[in-house]
Specification:
Layout: E1 2-6, H1 15-28, E2 33-37, H2 43-49, H3 66-83, H4 85-94, E3 103-104, E4 110-113, H5 123-128, H6 134-140, E5 148-152, H7 159-167, E6 170-175, H8 179-198, E7 204-210, H9 218-229, H10 244-251, H11 255-258, H12 263-277
Parallel strand pairs: 1-5, 1-6, 2-4, 2-5, 6-7
Antiparallel strand pairs: 3-4
Helix pairs in contact: 1-2, 1-12, 3-4, 6-7
């Protein structure tokens, strides 16, 4: 099992699109693949599951979801403390595993654990109870079920992102050739390195995914070259802008299922091949 986190502290860089489309290609290639959505915006969940994952004031979030899992983590801890060692241990052994929160997507080999809009309300309690290792432990118990796991994170370095990084083997960093993104990149990498040092020495930065790359424009070329000059791990496969991505979102169809031969789909395929090559 190989776990990848798609992470950027800046929003609007294509994080969810990258996570979903790489997971979809992974499944299309025959890997048993799970996507975990840790972003309360639930864009990845809605992208793959469509109408049932879209919540509104008159419609609750799709259940079970990742918030329900973290609620279980907190309630198991409380039960053990309140009811004594014997009964508390019994309740703990009866608690559901992370696989109980999985939904099958419409696509073969691709499953999803959806997010919830109120996930963020659990952040303080999870931090206070030092539950940052629970996701890692849960994923290790699922290692026989999935060959590839992709985790979409919120655009912030918080307890959910930290939990994902602790559980991961690799980090992919979306980057949209924006000056503000470049300035934020160093802070992001520092957070990943700190996580490596403190919690997960096996964690690797797999690469920076350049998104919305316009090869004919001067500024994007300059920004990417600056990253390379700083010896940052820019992946060779870059993703061009295309209106087809909006169509993909609208139809809840990852690009590999919507337009296999499209240039953006091929760019994603190239990116997938490049990161998989690193594991051979």
């Amino acid at each position: 099992m190989l776990t990848r986190v798609v992470f950027n502290q800046k929003g609007g860089v294509g994080k969810s699109s990258i996570a979903v489309n790489l997971a979809a290609i992974s499944a299309y290639q025959g890997f048993k693949t799970l996507l975990i959505d840790l972003d309360p915006q639930a864009n990845s969940s809605q992208y793959l599951l469509g109408e049932e994952a879209i919540y509104a004031a008159d419609r609750p979030a799709l259940q079970p979801n990742i918030e329900n899992y973290f609620e279980e983590v907190l309630s198991s801890n409380q039960s053990k403390g309140l009811l004594g060692n014997a009964l508390g241990s019994l309740l703990k052994t009866r608690s559901k595993g992370l696989d109980s929160y999985v939904h099958q997507s419409p696509f073969p080999n691709l499953s999803v654990i959806p997010a919830s809009p109120t996930l963020g309300t659990l952040a303080h309690a999870l931090e206070a109870k030092h539950k940052i290792y629970k996701l890692c432990d849960a994923l290790q118990q699922m290692s026989a079920q999935y060959e590839r796991i992709y985790i979409d994170t919120p655009p912030a370095f918080n307890v959910f992102t930290l939990s994902a990084l602790i559980a991961a083997d690799r980090v992919l960093i979306p980057f949209d050739c924006d000056v503000f993104s470049k300035r934020a990149l160093h802070s992001l990498i520092e957070n990943v390195i700190e996580t490596q040092d403190d919690h997960n020495s096996a964690l690797e930065i797999e690469g920076i995914v350049v998104n919305q790359y316009q090869a004919q424009a001067k500024l994007p070329r300059q920004v990417v070259q600056q990253l390379k000059d700083e010896q940052l791990p820019v992946l060779n496969s870059m993703l061009p802008p295309s209106i087809i991505m909006k169509e993909s979102h609208l139809k809840n169809l990852p690009l590999i299922h919507l337009a296999t031969d499209h240039k953006l789909t091929q760019a994603y395929q190239s990116l997938f091949n490049e990161i998989e090559q690193n594991n051979r």
